[in-house]
Fold:
Amino acid sequence: MKITTSIVAKSALMLSIAAGIAACNQNKSADKPAAATTTAASATPAAADIVYINQDSIVSQYEYIKDMDKRLDAKGKAAQSDVQSRQQAIQREIADYQKNAATMSADQRQATEQRLQRKGQEFQQYQQNAGAQVQNDQVGEQTKLYEKLVAFTKDYAKEKGYKMVLTFKKGDPTMLYGDPSLDITADVIKKLNEAYAKDKK
Structure:
């Protein structure tokens, strides 16, 4: 089983962000389309009850996510390298046995075969555990991201006076249109990165 992270992490990450940037100060008008929240093109986010964030931009521009992807990728590669190293060691032992089997006694062959079988079973279990650990690391990182985005969005909405913050991404049919004046993505990314830069110091 190949241990990979980047593709799996990215797709799971997209799902976690979709759930994570949630509605703040829940409003009875949540079922109304985002486009219906304003009737004038001159409306500004500061005067709006409902605004939205471009999820794709958050994924590509939020420095925390970039660093998270690097951490997950490094852990995945380290786990994969370790698994491959153990697999190669077992393969070498099997090759040595096959090379020397003809000169071994029946008892030696039986003992060696049993030992190699045990090692093979142990390796399979180790491989499964390594893959599970990589997945657990992904879930842990995504949970932290989820909590960070929810906490930030809640505080941000409260500060700006927004009743609801929506999110959308390309190909997501739940939000077909939003007036550009309601798009707060740039300011959110700016403040997210500023806060993360402070946390890193």
Helices lie at 6-20, 55-61, 63-100, 106-160, 185-200. Residues 106-160 form the longest helix (55 residues). The chain has one domain: 6-200. The first strand starts at residue 50 and ends at 54.
